[in-house]
Specification:
alpha/beta; Rossmann fold; 6 helices; 28% helix; 15% strand; globular; binds flavin mononucleotide
Amino acid sequence: MNRKKRIAAILLTAALGLIFSACGDASSESAGVPSGASAVESGQAESFSVPAASTGSEPAAGGSTLVVYFSCTGNTKAAAQTIAKAANGTIYEITPAQPYTDADLNYNDEKSRTTIEQNDPSARPEISGSVENWEKYDTVFIGYPIWWGTAPRILDTFVESYDFTGKTMIPFCTSSASGIGSSGADLKKLADGKGTWLDGRRLTADVSGADISSWLTELGIG
Ligand SMILES: Cc1cc2nc3c(=O)[nH]c(=O)nc-3n(C[C@H](O)[C@H](O)[C@H](O)COP(=O)(O)O)c2cc1C
């Protein structure tokens, strides 16, 4: 790490340390949000156009909205589920081929997997599985936690794997404090500028369905 990056890392670490004590603790944003691995199976679509009691294992049912998300500690997952429900969309979890351990998520360790990946713009963590029937979706929400001020590198892997032509892309993130910054614009660049990328939004894990519905109305969806 060069000197400038090291100073930035120290400042960010200090700031993050004040804001949240442990990344593995999903309660930093919302009590009751499950931590650890998602209940959504790798590469499987979970439909929200079925009753709430659904196990989530049914195939996607109609609809042209897809909510793609990556989440390690449950915050982005919770926001994604609220969007999918409000937009009657299908949900898809980006599942890393190699899951992130608590040690991997340690932003205080400059040798942790996430620190190394985020410091390497060419890092492309492998994804397990893929979106089924990609072509049928015309609106795609894409959600992720902010890591070191931007999207995790696995989002780079995702956007380089799909063709966004004709799709409206809507980034969203969760974070401890940082805004969404230029992460959405950065993903658009990696997507070769394909698709219509709208301004992204930072959400919290406990964002209400009503707030999401107003956002959808602003976006002209639903
Ligand atoms: C490696 C790492 C880096 C992070 N960097 C930031 C950051 O730069 N700014 C911030 O506000 N939060 C940062 N966070 C906190 C996460 O963005 C926040 O906890 C997020 O809601 C986690 O989402 P998830 O539960 O969906 O994984 C970081 C967390 C980790 C693990």
